[in-house]
Amino acid sequence: MVCANHGVFTRETHWVYQIIPVRCFSCGKVIGNLWDSYLELLAAGVDEGEAMDKLQLKRYCCRRMVLTHVDLIEKLLMYNPLARER
User: Fold this and answer.
1) Vertex 6, ends 69 and 46: CA angle to 5°?
2) Which residues lie below 8 Å from residue 44, measured CB to CB, with a gap of 6+?
3) CA distance readout (Å), 71 to 58, 64, 84, 85
4) Is 22-84 assigned to CATH 1.10.10.60?
5) Residue 85: CA count within 13 A, CB half-sphere
6) How far apart are CA 80 and CA 28, in angstroms?
7) How far apart are CA 29 and CA 26, in angstroms?
8) DSSP assignment letter at 57
9) Of the candidates 20, 26, 17, which has an alpha carbon nearest to the alpha carbon of residue 38?
10) What is the pLDDT of residues 1-15, one digit of tens each?
11) Distance (Å, rounded) from C-alpha 53 to C-alpha 41?
């Protein structure tokens, strides 16, 4: 389940926060829902280009959004006082 603030509810009953663009900045295609699938394909040993082909990311602008995304949420949470107390 995905929350409006980009949190994902996992089976372990806690929220995992992600900062992933919901849409491609250039064409507007929804790509935020593909991130977890992309990471699973990479973990399975699939090449980046082949993984994006399997996810039907054909436009180079959408491929750029997924390929160059850097997940900074863990570093940003260090500045959240509530996250530091845990």
Assistant:
1) 40
2) none
3) 22, 15, 19, 22
4) yes
5) 3
6) 31
7) 8
8) -
9) 20
10) 444 445 554 555 555
11) 11
Tell the residue number behind the tokens 């372990």, with chain if given: 12
* Residues with Cβ within 8 Å of residue 71, at least 6 apart in sequence: 18, 19, 20
Q: Among all chains, which residue has been given the structure tokens 């039907």?
A: 56
Residue 23 DSSP code: B
pLDDT at 44 > cutoff 80? yes
Instruction: Kindly report whether the global pTM for this prediction surpasses the value 0.85.
Output: no
For the chain, what's the residue count?
86
Quick check: 23 and 30 in contact, CB under 8 A? yes
Question: What percent of the chain is helix, strand and coil (3-state, nearest 5)?
Answer: 40, 10, 50
